[in-house]
Amino acid sequence: MATAFGLLAGASLAGAAPAAAAPAGRRLAPGVTYRHFDVAAAAGTARAHLVTVDLADPHVHVDLLYPGAVAARATVSRLADSAGAVAGVNGDFFNISETQHPGVEATGAPVGPAVADGEVLKAAVPKGQRFGPALPSGTSTRDVFGVGTDRRARLDRLSLTGSVGTPEGKLPLKGLNQYALPVDSVGAFTARWGSASRVRAVCGTDGKRSAPCSGDTYEVKVRGGRVVSASDAPGSGAIPAGTTVLVGREAGAQQLRKLAVGDPVTVTHTLTASSSQVPYAFAIGGFPVLRDGTPLSGLDSATSAVRTVVGFKDGGRQLLLLALDGGAAYRSGLTVAEEARTMRSLGATDAFNLDGGGSAELVTRDSGASSVSVRNHPSGGAERPVPDGIGVFSS
């Protein structure tokens, strides 16, 4: 079947017609279809589960699936059912373990930026602090896949812009609801973070995730524009609405120690896009693998794995959500390079890799059903709780 799609250099779709002539698949809702097919790759045959979304249909939209807090996890099926989605896939890589820092709680928080329903949830951790496979050359933890308020999908980069106004002047804000802060910085945590410990934020360095936790830290709570408390160590527990917790490490901690209870403090933060002028209704982290019809240079062509990927075509009007099956017969998976070529063969001009392995999952809800069904077999034998995903909704 390789000739039906052109030359795929090691990956081709088996048992399926070219994208332009592909069967419509099972209709889940207006503008939303599901089908599965096999992919012949270097490590063996993989099975792909695909949801196609017509963003030009006014009754369809996509948004972030998440458990209501950045530092929390739930299965994709539970996230989709709670939100009323007709389909969904898992999302960003995340702080899954802390074996390198014994006694420190793994937060479960995702690596990259996140936007839900037009609201900024978090910013990206430093590159050396990420979980997941090596990033392709030229990419960053700040890279996102998103859909703008114009209902078009795009790839972009979202960077944190913020400051902390104090009686002595402004400090740059270098973190927002993220599990790792840059060395010498100050970061902010809001009610959106959840109740997880903030200690992980001061562990590791910008270039080495396993580096020890900082011994020079400070935390300040701000409510109503005033400092209400301070501590020498990051804390935990739910953050009330209207309260911002500032955590500093090294030079950032030294700056926060200058504040006293009652001092006026203002905190501002937003995510600034590097290319789009259209505000994002939704955005999620991961890394790009296909841009303008061309796979990124240096994509891994050696390691095959179960993967999840999102792509788009027709100028961002058509969305493709794909997750590989983790069942024993198909667990060989695809390399990142094969993943990019497979998405291109489906007509995608751009594609974005999400978390894979035991996290890879795709769910759909049939018409009339009260809950979603898991369409692929998770490679771990059961659904893995994840921090976020992409949900497809139909009105």
SS field, number of helical segments: 4
- Give the termini separation: 37 Å
Number of strands: 26
Strand content: 35-45%
Record the SSE blueprint.
Layout lengths: L1 H4 L6 E3 L11 E4 L2 E10 L2 E11 L5 E6 L10 H8 L3 E4 L23 E3 L2 E4 L20 E6 L4 E14 L2 E4 L2 E2 L9 E4 L27 E7 L2 E6 L11 E7 L1 H6 L9 E8 L6 E6 L1 E5 L2 E2 L12 E6 L4 E7 L11 H10 L4 E5 L7 E3 L8 E2 L14 E6 L1
Characterization of this structure:
The chain has helices at about 1-5, 75-85, 250-255, 335-345, and strands spanning about 10-15, 25-30, 30-40, 45-55, 60-65, 85-90, 115, 120, 145-150, 155-165, 170, 175, 185-190, 215-225, 225-230, 245-250, 265-275, 280-285, 285-290, 295, 310-315, 320-325, 350-355, 360-365, 375, 390-395. With about 400 residues, it is mainly β. Strands 1, 2, 3, 4, 19, 20, 21, 22 and 23 form a 9-stranded antiparallel sheet that branches. About 55% of the residues are buried.
Give a quick precis of the structure.
This protein has 4 helices and 26 strands.
Based on the model shown, name its key terms.
mainly beta; 7% helix; five-stranded antiparallel beta sheet; disordered N terminus; 395 residues; 26 strands
